[in-house]
Amino acid sequence: MSEATFNKAELAKFDGQNGQPAYVAVDGVVYDVTGVDAWAGGKHHGNLAGQELTAVIDTHSPHGRSVLKKLPVIGKYAD
After folding, report:
1. In whole angstroms, what is the distance from residue 70 CA to residue 31 CA?
2. Could you tell me which InterPro entries the record lists for this protein (predicted)?
């Protein structure tokens, strides 16, 4: 895993807007969702990139964490 560590404010910069990549954090890991069509513009089913989404993926996502293994890991999340 990369050595990059993101806090809430740093992760928020990667919202998929204005040319920025789109990153999300789940269970302490930051993933790059930039190339995922469903995350176009940094938005996916009402969720926004640049946020910690563990509770969302565990309680509201039909696919759960299974999609995470397909995503590039960018670093760690520590709030």
Report:
1. 10
2. Cyt_B5-like_heme/steroid-bd (IPR001199), Cyt_B5-like_heme/steroid_sf (IPR036400)
